[in-house]
Amino acid sequence: MKTWLNLITAEMEQAFTTAGYDAGYAKVTLSNRPDLCEYQCNGAMAAAKAYRKAPIMIAGDVVAHLQENSCFENAEAVAPGFINLKIRPAFLAVFLNEMEKSDNLGVEKESNPKTIVIDYGGPNVAKPLHVGHLRSAIIGESVKRIVRYKGNEVLGDIHLGDWGYQMGLIITELQRRRPDLPYFDENYTGEYPQEPPFTIGELEEIYPMASAYAKEHEDYREKALHATYLLQNGHPGFRAIWQHIMKVSVTDLKKNYEKLHVNFELWKGEADVQKYIPDMVRSLKEEGYARYDEGALVVDVAEEEDNKAVPPCMILKSDGAALYDTTDLATLLEREKLYRPDQVIYVVDKRQELHFVQVFRCARKTGIVRPEVELKFLGFGTMNGKDGKPFKTREGGVMRLENLIREIDEEMWKKIMGNRTVTAEEARKTAEIVGLAAIKYGDLSNQASKDYIFDVDRFTSFEGNTGPYILYTIVRIKSILNKYLESGGSLETVALHSAQSACEKALMLETARFSEMIETVYEEIAPHKICAYIYDVANAFNKFYHETKILSEEDTEKKAGYIALLKLTKEVLEVCIELLGFDAPERM
User: Fold this and answer.
1) Domains in the chain, start-ordered, CATH in brackets?
2) Residue 385: exposed, middle, or buried by beta-carbon count in 10 A (0-12, 13-18, 19+)?
3) Which end of the chain is more exposed for a tag (fewer CB within 10 A), N or C?
4) What share of the chain has pLDDT > 70, as a percent?
5) What's the Cα-to-Cα distance from 547 to each of 392, 503, 504, 571, rounded to whole Å?
6) pLDDT tens-place string over residues 208-266
């Protein structure tokens, strides 16, 4: 099904062609002067030079062929050469009825679906999730849902930090506290315990303590580095501890990500790709891509057109240790072997852009990925407090993610209880749903690459451009539809009619933009444009609601048309919030 804008543009193309002008000038856009018209075409301005003719004359020629057009109620040439357009209500109603009946609300699936891996999350095991992990999780999950909605095969990979120095620190500290454990007995030959020797709470306390202690005590640090070396080289006791760390950490991570409605198809980490590194390094040397620079093994990735210096991609440090560059290259190698993706999208802090420039160039230059694979870096900005600095607790520490969620839920619960129409138990459940919307919408309504202020008071408001406002709109529509059903009406037989008022037409026009909005969001990977769209839809609906007697309308056919419009509006809003990663409650 054509998008609404493509349909209108096709009508304009026909008019340009019939008037003797190239159809390429017939581009239609949403009007930037809604007080004058609904859509506009500025092609006559561009065509003037090619045809050596005044723009207003070209516009007049085109408009002459639109007077009896079934799409446009009014087409007007305005100096110096604009074409102002208003849509015929009957044409709009036909489009919306077709949209409602079509699959995917008129959004066409990819004719050649891609296999896409999205790398997002990136937490280190043995550490609690904190607010710094929020943006990657929220943006990555939304991007995954958007590209999947278009019919692609999508794999979300959490890409755990599970193989580095922090493991050696935990092992060393555990050995200091519990030297009697069998993992540290070099002569032990039995089965290691099935139950881990620590809880998630103890594990999360061990790491920061060990990290701080190592910075002050060089001998402890050396021991931790040696423990890391032994782990990575197969020490059986340390591998068993590592398995415990992974089990306890992943269980806790899944619980916390579940609260965010974030899920991953792949729970892979740096440890999974260690087996690829030796052969990869050997190949880079043998094929002449890698060279030694002051003892370190590097691959040059600078290009002549670079405006800024791009350092070599470091494969091994001078002591032979692997780095993030190494692991990320090996991860791409594994993805090629296991999934052969057409595209890999990295949802990562924008401050890591240089690292990914180096890795992407190295992967292409050395043939680690096929030439046709698209590697995309989607860098996001920081989430800041009202002081403009990275978001902290009131005490100044890094806030745990579960505490932030709890704070938001508590704020929403207080507001919902103020309504006094729901039980405390229902209010708690609703607060979790609305609280998640407040967090996710608050984040996603900002362009991913920009820093933003996390304002709890504003994000939890039921007014303005917020998640709770969007949900309140959906709940209001649900309530009206339920009342219509209770009165004996049916949602299966209703159909939209020609708009009877300006506010009804405005809502219909907003709803009609759904598929073209999805196409733009998909092409640009821009979840914030979904937020902007549904805010416009919500505003248009609420204006229509306040100016129209819907359920009390005595004309049965007219009422059914209103209900059909509300049904479609609800479906559009629900698809959009699903793509953003949250749901709407039944009541608020």
Assistant:
1) 4-87 (3.30.1360.70), 165-251 (no CATH), 271-338+347-380 (no CATH), 401-580 (1.10.730.10)
2) middle
3) N
4) 99
5) 44, 8, 9, 22
6) 999 999 999 999 999 999 999 999 889 999 999 999 999 999 999 999 999 999 999 99
